[in-house]
Amino acid sequence: MTALFALATSLLWGLADFGGGLLTRRTPALTVVVVSQTIAVAVLGAVVLATGGWHEAGPQLWFAVAAGAVGPVAMLSFYKALALGPMGVVSPLGSLGVAVPVGVGLVLGERPGLLQFAGIAVAVVGILMAGGPEFRGAPVQRQAIALTLLAAFGFGAVMALIAESSTTVTGLFLALFVQRVTNVAVGGTALYVSVKRGGAALPEGGRAVVVAALPALAFVGLADVAANGTYAIAAQAGPVTVAAVLASLYPVITALAARGVLKERLRGVQAVGAGVALVGTLLLATG
Known about the structure:
single chain; mainly alpha; 13 helices; EamA family transporter
């Protein structure tokens, strides 16, 4: 079950990142974050009411609040990086955040078997290769890399925090709702400050462009929420060290989506990396 939910997480995150990266090429990144997460809040609020999730409120929700505070910083940094550099380069570097939950798992006493340790190492190498990183080039590439590394730490922190925010399915709905409310509060405040300082809240074309993009924004917000949910289930069902690595295969999905939709060419190292990541996945699943 851990492997299944963790792989579902990688699929959802990969598609959400691809959609978010596309949107930020036309719309300010803060606007993408705030609008997509506001839609997620509305949907999750309805789910919490329908499932009676309010009864699961407790001290563990502070983990969700912390995840919600870190999340917008990570998402904003990542979307800006995706808009600056090729998705196939930025996305795999973002997966370095896996070091955070893996480290937490090891500190808490998790000790994967030898085969699983091998799978972790192979999968991480494959993830990095799948992006075919190019570190040479213009300053904009260096800026994209710096933003991506900041995002990676944030994503890793969110993974570690959300895994501790609930112990039941209905409690998870409430935790995700609290996380997203915090996302919107933090992101909305940043957007307000940005506008006050002369930044743009709307893309060229104004509100009409944002309205036209609502379906895509909804997909990004809901896919990201679903990914957090499936990851929390995976982390609770099995070792966090395994769940975190399998969930971090999302760069492969982003790279493939960029290849299929944007016609970004996959370099040889990317194709090999995807295969290596798959081998690591199989080792983790069977270890």
